[in-house]
Records
---
Amino acid sequence: MTSTFALLSHPDPDSVVAWRGSQPVTASRFLADVHALAARLPAGDHVFNACADRYRFAVGLCAALLCGKVSLLPSAQTPETVRQLAAFAPDVFCLHDDADCSVALPRFFYDASEPEPSAPLPVPDIPAERLMAYVFTSGTTGQPVAHAKTWGAMVRGARATAQRLGLADGRAWTLVGTLPPSICSDWKPR
């Protein structure tokens, strides 16, 4: 029997899952954005998500997961890092939200002008064993090392963190992250 985890754990379609400026984004809107992007992503099993907008980054990560693509998450976006990603996964394309993106990979522009959802979409269940991402070390001591992350491992890790922080009590919480991904990937609790 394959175990699955829901893409979102918010209780209803009107639950707020993110904020864009001063505007709340509901679960319904987030799911519509994820499904719309997933339907448009080009061929290729690997995605380098270079979206600078954090909401678009999250939508891109979930859209890739939804359609079975693996996100490549390096600690930097230098030309050398991009070259190494292309060597690691020759079919990789760059998902970006910058009209002036010059990443030396096939590029797919995330045009976020999607219509409002007409009806709430069901929250998809994702197999726990689905490969979600390769998270790369910085490579400061040599070649960056890829660490495979499955959806199940990410969900279990997020749930354990919520438990440790006292956020698993059934109330609605807002968590604000302020560290760049390169710092977060190397951070370890003391």
---
Amino acid sequence: ASEDLCFVVFALFNVLWATLYLESWKRTCAEHAYRWGTLDSQSELLSEPRPLFLGPLQKSEVTGRLEPTYPAWKQNLFRYCVSLPVIAFCLLIVFMVMFLIFELQTWWDKKIKQLDYPFWLTFVPKVLLALVINVLDSVYYRIAHWLNDKENYRLEETFQNHLIIKLVLVCTKVVL
């Protein structure tokens, strides 16, 4: 009987705790939404598609107007079969170029010391790395933007978020 009483008390405690926690979380979310200015933001279904969003016009179930639509499976197919391999290939290129330039740096430093060339020549591979990083960064930015355009995101916010993810993936590797 005492075990049954403990289970009942424990169950009541869990119900009370979960309710208070949930209400506290709702309040915290509302405070953050107010502070961040997103309290009155519209639903994704009611927001206008971005101007470059392409697709056949269909009647919207929410607004009743004709709006461009694009199947999610096509977007996912392009994302996983084209974007992902291209990004992986770009990462591989960046790692290979960085590795080769670091190897060049060690070989170059040994040659400079052996042949007694001026000290400032040790900076040549470092300058080369800086130039290659800038070139690869600009090329990858164009590739990432093209991939994002082809993925055909409906909202500008989603477009920007996926572009940021693509850029951060490779650009952080370039900085390393």
---
Amino acid sequence: MLCRAAATQARIDGPVLIVGDPDTGGAAPDLPAAREEARIVYRRFFPQARYLGRAGGAPAGPASGPPGGAGSAAEVEAWLADDSETGGVLHLACHGEVRDDQASLLLHGGERLSADRLAGATRNGRRPGLVVLAACRSAVSGRGWDEAFSLAATFLSAGAGSVVAAQWSLPDRATSDVMVLFHEHIAAGRPPADALRRAQLALLDRPVTDWAGLIHFGR
């Protein structure tokens, strides 16, 4: 996987999917800062994107663009399974968890999109240039003694060029701040690893738990 990731050219240009704080139906607390983060990323950096989840003031999509949605597991899987285009960006601002030996994203209605299920959806599908998992513990393995079954590793093994994910439970507001700065550097032409580093350096005056949990994998 290391060799494959090193050889991958991460094409960020292409289709974009943004998922902002889907309504979990009470399975987890709302994430108002994540919702705002997704709205800012959509409006400021990727206005052509498809937007899923609670909009928090952002329209579901431009009038001429693709429709939005609730942010269900099926919607995310369908986007990932579409192999008609490669490259692009997937930004997930939602809950992540590790439960019963499964690393999962918590999406609309409280449905869990597990690493195993993601592996099936991405096996022969889209290969995003950049996957941003602004979700708690998305770099943590659900089972085993290394990161092999984490959400981040699942996307890397499916051919994603770069993945940003979290090693622990992240504070909602601080994560939103890091993510907006990260995308500002991406828009300025910085590669993902450097963009994350610069975003974190800007927040060194804050508690280390606010920014150090996010790490970069891949190209």
---
Amino acid sequence: MTELPAGGPAPFSGFGLGLRPDHYAEVLRRDAVADFFEVISENFMVDGGRPLNLLDRVRERYPLALHGVSMSLGGKSLDPDYLRRLKALSDRVRPLWLSDHLCWTGSGGINSHDLLPLPLTQEALERVAANIHHAQEVLEQPLLIENPSSYITYPEDSLTEWQFLTQLCARTGCGLLLDVNNIYVSAHNHGFDARAYLDGIPFDRVRQIHLAGHTVGDGLLIDTHDQPVPEGVWSLYAETVKRCDTVAVMIERDDDIPPLDDLLAELAVARRLAVPELA
């Protein structure tokens, strides 16, 4: 059995961005744009060609984190080919860490391309923990697990999401990627106190924070990642970062991508809130 570090990947302190095609050329042209970049793993899980060439060039200049969207940790079992290709990418990039979501994404070989919510039950906890153990064995490193945004709950739920995540950390040695926007969205949608969520999280396991925007729907907040970080999320982030020791903070934007300098201005806000002496 592979011996994995206790408590998740090694801590890293810095402020980064999600690497998106709109900014590839500028990131490679400019110096010291950010402390690190995060890339969507599935976009680079290929055998060769331009995507990997680009990633190699960025990796020469910046630390990278790999963020997955379809491992489907809540599914019945993990796809061995997916894990094989992710392991090959990880071996090539040697990322700060690998992360994915507390969710399932499909069944029977069908990928829904959505991050589907899990029932928060002991049965689901056992299944997710087993899948995390298996993934970490294959990948030879601990994972970071991200809290999702959600819009429904299940009648059989017996745990809060923060209790579920806390038990996953204890059972598997994984770390956490804490998405502050997702906490804010889910708290609004389900009527719980976002600060109670923070009170229940083991912050010694938090290695990364995501910041993003959302859209106001008909009675719900929708995690669209196509808006600037709103004031409510900034306020919750300020509470969150007080509880962290060494952590990586990232602005996540997936649609309606603005100029790079706009995102860097948001990242400067994140830095000032985390390090008040810079204000």
